[in-house]
Structures are given as structure tokens and as C-alpha cells.
Design a protein that fits this description.
The strands form three sheets. Strands 1, 2, 3, 4, 10, 11, 12, 13, 14 and 15 form a ten-stranded antiparallel beta sheet that branches. Helix 2 runs antiparallel to helix 11, helix 3 crosses helix 8 and helix 3 packs antiparallel against helix 10. The protein is built from eleven helices and 15 strands. The protein starts with a helix and ends in an 8-residue tail after the last helix. Strand 13 and strand 14 form a beta hairpin.
Length: 369
């Protein structure tokens, strides 16, 4: 778990492989190349399992599951996974929806809802989702890391998480003057939203995203349970190779509470990436580059990275490694999740695999980080 906390994140083969033959510019030979490359990457990275889904618009290019969930249990594309930092993309979208509904003013100082918090009179919800508020990242606190590693089933409250960030009474920088990724800021924002709306986060996600998009395999983790079928995850972070599937996800606060599966993630990716849940003005604020971000082709927007036109995330979380990519220019979606084998080098391989896939399906628009 310690390694996962610090990451911004012949097999039992082809449990599900499917192709679509009607994709513009996509030949059978191209698909064969893609399948061969993904199979090679599974072996090269030594991951225990690899599941991926690739679509252009509504047309499926490839869905594949390789390897094992557990010993003698094949991985399958319908298995549920903890999506970690991909939750932040849902979160940014939800915040903008709530803003449109008049549930919260994203430019209001959060002292309106959390007057007791350090620097609350200088911070807005928009700063929190764009990580420009300056709060220290609690997952870089050694005491916190040691506690989570020692007690992986422990439950953490928002108050405990935030205290690890602000306990020293210092910020990374004056709010609004810089940008630095911080899990803390998503957790503060979760508390702000609940106070502003009078509703719990699971209820808000269900009302505004899960239900409208018919995401029946996506939910908010209120405990350690996952619905069946489950892709099991494994970790060596505590010095032994062990099943980490049911380690408590609460340590991520509001930066990683969601679970899902490939089909739901692909459906969400397109709705998010096309801005179909938001007005054009709100979507523009969602994907906009924060002031101070120097590179117009590579920056952190609102819970996700904009990289050479792609909207991307790369979580590594309690043994799961994920990669999320949507390219609006070509309406391309790529989702990859992997799990670690007993070879520690197999940890956090999903984003590497996604970038290799992108080189094949979008050679003119590769991901530049």
C-alpha cells in the first residue's frame, strides 16, 4: 500500500475478446496488431490480470480480459474494480452539475461551509477541484502512510484525513497562486458539498450521474464490500504478496471512493468527454487550464490531466492499477486496469499499457506524459 499511496497512479487468456468490424479506418490487420500488442504487454509487464475496453464513438474496437482474478479464476471484462483516482473525474463533473443546479457556488469562499478550516476564507470549491488551494497532501505524511500500511482494514474519517494535512498550520502556497496535486483537496471538497447541499455524496452521485447514465455497476464505497463478480487485487506493500481487494478504501477520502466495471467506465467516459452532462460553459470550466499552468498541452484540469488533447487519469490504489483516456477530437475511449502478480515490477502498469495502445489507435495524438 505504501507504494500505491505515493503514485498519482501463456496466460489464462481471452475470457472475453470482441471486435467491431465497422470502424472507419480500422482493418482486420489493425485489430490483429492491437490484440498482439496487448497480449505481448500482458507478458512483458508480468501483471496477474489485464482488462481493457476500447471504443470509437459507440463502435467497439476491442474488449479483452487476460490472466487470472485469483488462482484458477479467470479475469473477465464484467468484473468490478476499485477505480481510485478515476473517481476524481466523476467528482469534477458532479461539482459542475451542482453548480448549474444552484446547489453550490464554486466561486464562493468555503468559509461559508467550513469556517473552522485553515485558510477557508481564501479558498473556493473551484480551487479545490483544480488543486490550486495549497493544502498539503496527507498521503505524503509519513505517520499517515505508516498507519495505513500497518492497519489496511482501518476506517478513516474525513476529519482524520484533513487533520493530517492542516495539523501543522501551513499550506504549500497561498491559495490560487500555484497548483500541486493533493488528495486532501478532494476530501475537503466532499465535506463542503455535503454541508452545502444537505445530502451525502453517494446520494448526489446516484442522483446526478449514476442514474442518468444508467451506470448499474458503479457505486460509492461506503465500506469494504464490492459487488460480484470482483477482479481481485494483490499487493506487496506490506512485505508479503497478499490479496488487497478488501482493504479499506476510506483512506482515499473523496479522491478515490468509487467502484465500477469496464462497460460503465466506457459509457461514463464518453458522456463526460463530450460534455453531455453539462452546459458548454460549465464543461469549459471543467476542462480549462488553471492560471499558472505553463504548458497548454499538458495540465491538470479538474480531477484529470489534459495531455495532448486526451483527458486522462492513472490511479494506483490498493493493488489496482488503472488508466482512463478519452480523446474528444476522435471520440476515442480507452480503459485499462491491471492487477499485480508476485513480481513487484508488475505494479502500476496500466498507464504504460494505455499509452502503447494509443500509439496504435491514435499515432498522431499520443499521450505526452
Amino acid at each position: 500500500m505504501k507504494k500505491n499511496i505515493h503514485l498519482l497512479i501463456a496466460a489464462i487468456f481471452v475470457i472475453q475478446i470482441s471486435f467491431n468490424t465497422n470502424i472507419s479506418g480500422q482493418t482486420s490487420a489493425d485489430r490483429d496488431v492491437l490484440l498482439k500488442k496487448i497480449t505481448e504487454l500482458k507478458e512483458e509487464t508480468k501483471v496477474k490480470s489485464l482488462i481493457t475496453g476500447i471504443k470509437k464513438g459507440d463502435e467497439e474496437i476491442l474488449t479483452i480480459a487476460l490472466g487470472e482474478s485469483m488462482t484458477s479464476v479467470p479475469a473477465s471484462a464484467d468484473m468490478h474494480i476499485r477505480i481510485g483516482g478515476v473517481s476524481e473525474i466523476f467528482f469534477g463533473t458532479l461539482l459542475m452539475i451542482l453548480s448549474e443546479k444552484g446547489e453550490i457556488d464554486i466561486d464562493e469562499k468555503i468559509s461559508k461551509w467550513m469556517p473552522e478550516l485553515l485558510a477557508a476564507d481564501k479558498v473556493t470549491p473551484l480551487m479545490l477541484i483544480k488543486n490550486t488551494a495549497g493544502y498539503k497532501d496527507y498521503v505524503l505524511n509519513k505517520d499517515f502512510v505508516d498507519l495505513v500500511t500497518k492497519e489496511p482494514f482501518r476506517n478513516f474519517s474525513r476529519e482524520e484525513i484533513i487533520a493530517y494535512s492542516v495539523g501543522g498550520g501551513e499550506l504549500n502556497f497561498t491559495p490560487g497562486t500555484d497548483q500541486k496535486y493533493s488528495h486532501t483537496e478532494f476530501t475537503i471538497l466532499g465535506k463542503v458539498i455535503e454541508r452545502a447541499t444537505g445530502k451525502k455524496m453517494p446520494e448526489l452521485y446516484e442522483e446526478y450521474i449514476f442514474s442518468p447514465l444508467n451506470l448499474q455497476n458503479t457505486g460509492y464505497s461506503v465500506n469494504q464490500e464490492l459487488p460480484s463478480p470482483v477482479l481481485h487485487a494483490f499487493s506487496s506493500d506490506r512485505g508479503i504478496y497478499e490479496d488487497a481487494t478488501y482493504w479499506n478504501p476510506s483512506w482515499t477520502g473523496d479522491s478515490g471512493p468509487l467502484y465500477s466495471n469496464l462497460n460503465d467506465l466506457i459509457r461514463f467516459a464518453r458522456a463526460f468527454g463530450k460534455g453531455s452532462l453539462l452546459t458548454p460553459a460549465s464543461f469549459e470550466r471543467l476542462v480549462s487550464r488553471p492560471e499558472g499552468a505553463k504548458n497548454p498541452d499538458l495540465y491538470f484540469a479538474s480531477g484529470f490531466v489534459v495531455a495532448n488533447g486526451w483527458y486522462a487519469q492513472n490511479p494506483s490504489f490498493n493493488g489496482y492499477s488503472g488508466a482512463f483516456g478519452y480523446l474528444p477530437e476522435d471520440d476515442l475511449t480507452v480503459i485499462v486496469f491491471t492487477t499485480q502478480s508476485d513480481d513487484p515490477k508488475s505494479d502500476a502498469q496500466a498507464f504504460k499499457i494505455l499509452k502503447e495502445i494509443v500509439k496504435i489507435i491514435s499515432p498522431e495524438k499520443v499521450i505526452n506524459f
